[in-house]
Specification:
By secondary structure, the protein is α+β, with helices and mostly antiparallel strands. The chain has four domains: 1-30; 32-81, SH3 type barrels, CATH 2.30.30.100; 83-169; 183-271, Alpha Horseshoe (Serine Threonine Protein Phosphatase 5, Tetratricopeptide repeat). The protein is built from twelve helices and five strands. The protein has a five-stranded antiparallel β-sheet, with no helix packed on it. α9 packs antiparallel against α10 (230-243). The longest helix has 20 residues, at 3-22. The chain is elongated.
Amino acid sequence: MTQRYLRHRKIRMLVCSFAVIIGASACWAGAVHKATLIKHNGGRAQGFVRYLPASKAFELKAGAVTQSLQASEVAKVVLLEQPAQLQQLVAAVKRGQYLAAIAPLKKIKDEYEMFGPDLIAAQYLAVAYLNSGKAAEAVRMCEELLRGNPTASKSGEFAGIYWDALLKEKKYATLRRILEDAIQTGSRDIAAVALVKRGDMDMEKGESKKALLDGYLRTILAFQDIKTIQPEALYKAMKAHTAVNEHHYAEKWRKRLLSGYPNSDYAKKLK
């Protein structure tokens, strides 16, 4: 071996050793986060973790030992540190600062794929896209996330925003199929959100009565235990009744919204 080769080899070994000392992963490509993986069987493993999309697996390095776990084996990923900017970016989106939040949210979504913060980042990224007139981009991003992480559809908030984007793009056939499946097979939380979105789609098509019967009223009457969706269902039922000149019923739901959920965003719209 030449002196030049030996010198380069020594440099590489020193770089890797330094990476281990500082807890980094300069010689281990990919976004790496310190985390605990909790398996379905109750087992735990902690160390430096990266996700490998091609093989749908987590690779975990603890000291000199590296192990691989299929994503299907992992029940939960617990990050030791959350991305510092995430809550600030969520707050920015809520304040209406959509364009400024898009690039950093996308970066978090990509770097924390399958670690949890990716879902929150994607949710607010979709909101930012929708409110920036980029509904097609919101649909594309949501579908990209769902291809890599199908369990994201179990989050009512994320699913609701994805469905809003499909509605904005007038992809009625795709949206109706997804909603029917969610109503039939999803959890009660997901089914309740899907019913309201089905009502939104019917309202968009000018079918106010159908929106009431198959969407909003069914949510109000059959899903009273799902408190998170009730304010929206009540508000939209009130609007739909008004659209068909049923003002007595509209007033009934207005009063229930104000008395039962006075601090909700939908109640604030009436004040």
